[in-house]
């Protein structure tokens, strides 16, 4: 469990007993959010799959934040720099819009204190809550900020629907930007032709979305992908990164609502994440669509925790 501020927990895991060096794990540096917390990274959960339910997907992602934490806390760390846990925002009553608003408020508060949030989902409806949090944080500066939205995903999530759901968040972002007189800069990596209709491709083109198909993201394309991302990062003031775990192959991430037959290799996804981190412009990130009920031997939980760790404290 996270450090409770009352007594220092025993460092490491039982298997670390007898070691004569540092055995710190994430659990040993992860602390509940306090009033004086600042200048570090923080995790916050979005325990919701209401958007997945509305999108006629396989529910269960509401349990994702807890499952990711359990794996994340066991990972080793190599310094004592603190991490903060801001708890969970849960959607238990079907009021997705209310839950997204609460998440946005919490994220704006974290960023206002100089903390960089990493949101653990939850369905991809988390993305609109994350985006609203950044917009709230920027306030009157929003329209003048060159915000780059990067989505690592098999899907555009630009759907039209009677109610917002896990397939609509980036279309909602486009509408929000238009209402504020701001440019919508949306960059997608890993789009699957077989997971998006013609209507969605046409909507993406109409909105000026830049995207790379999963078939265009081979190891041999890595240098080209990195150069393209770098060029967009240079032109941005701030970056919001969303990672939908269904961008990965089902063989790597089976525990998602809509598993991918092909997907993108994990090492390519990690390279893109590293490129964004290296820019120094990442304002916040989220990890979406982990469904523990569909996982095998915590395989997807381990991948999600690895990505969260990378975002929180980049490995050496």
UniProtKB/TrEMBL annotation:
Top class in the EC scheme: hydrolase
Pfam families: Arginase
Any GO molecular function: formimidoylglutamase activity
Entry binding sites for Mn(2+) 2: 153, 155, 244, 246
InterPro entries (UniProt xref): HutG, Ureohydrolase, Ureohydrolase_dom_sf, Ureohydrolase_Mn_BS
Note accompanying the cofactor annotation: Binds 2 manganese ions per subunit.
Pathway, per record: Amino-acid degradation; L-histidine degradation into L-glutamate; L-glutamate from N-formimidoyl-L-glutamate (hydrolase route): step 1/1
Residues annotated for Mn(2+) 1 binding in this entry: 124, 153, 157, 244
Nucleotidyltransferase found in the keyword field: no
CC cofactor: Mn(2+)
Sorted UniProt keywords: Histidine metabolism, Hydrolase, Manganese, Metal-binding
Record EC number: 3.5.3.8
Catalytic activity: N-formimidoyl-L-glutamate + H2O = formamide + L-glutamate
Organism domain of life: Bacteria
Keyword hit for Hydrolase: yes
Function: Catalyzes the conversion of N-formimidoyl-L-glutamate to L-glutamate and formamide.
Family: Belongs to the arginase family.
PANTHER family assigned to the protein according to its UniProt record, in alphabetical order: ARGINASE/AGMATINASE, FORMIMIDOYLGLUTAMASE
Listed name of the protein: Formimidoylglutamase
Source organism per UniProt: Chelatococcus albus
């Amino acid at each position: 469990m996270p450090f409770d501020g009352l007594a220092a927990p025993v460092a490491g895991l039982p298997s670390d007993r007898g070691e004569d060096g540092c055995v710190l794990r994430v659990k040993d540096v992860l602390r509940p959010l306090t009033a004086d917390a600042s200048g570090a990274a923080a995790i916050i959960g979005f325990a919701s799959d209401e958007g997945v339910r509305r999108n006629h997907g396989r529910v269960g992602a509401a349990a994702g934040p807890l499952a990711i934490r359990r794996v994340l806390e066991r990972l080793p760390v190599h310094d004592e720099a603190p991490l903060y846990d801001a708890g969970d925002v849960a959607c238990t009553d079907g009021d997705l819009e209310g839950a997204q608003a609460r998440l946005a408020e919490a994220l704006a508060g974290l960023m206002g204190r100089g903390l960089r949030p990493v949101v653990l989902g939850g369905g991809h409806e988390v993305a609109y809550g994350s985006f609203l949090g950044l917009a709230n944080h920027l306030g009157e500066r929003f329209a003048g900020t060159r915000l780059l939205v990067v989505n690592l995903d098999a899907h555009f999530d630009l759907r039209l629907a009677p109610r917002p759901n896990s397939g609509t968040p980036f279309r909602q972002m486009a509408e929000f930007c238009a209402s504020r007189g701001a440019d919508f800069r949306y960059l997608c990596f890993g789009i699957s032709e077989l997971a998006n209709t013609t209507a969605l491709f046409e909507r993406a083109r109409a909105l000026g979305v830049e995207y790379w198909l999963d078939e265009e993201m081979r190891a041999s394309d890595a240098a080209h992908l990195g150069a393209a991302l770098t060029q967009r990062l240079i032109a941005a003031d701030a970056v919001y990164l969303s990672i939908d775990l269904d961008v990965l192959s089902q063989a790597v991430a089976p525990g998602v609502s809509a598993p991918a037959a092909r997907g993108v290799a994990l090492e390519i996804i990690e390279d893109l994440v590293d490129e964004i981190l290296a820019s120094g412009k990442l304002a916040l990130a989220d990890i979406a669509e982990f469904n523990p009920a569909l996982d095998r031997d915590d395989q997807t939980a381990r991948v999600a925790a690895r990505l969260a760790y990378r975002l929180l404290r980049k490995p050496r």
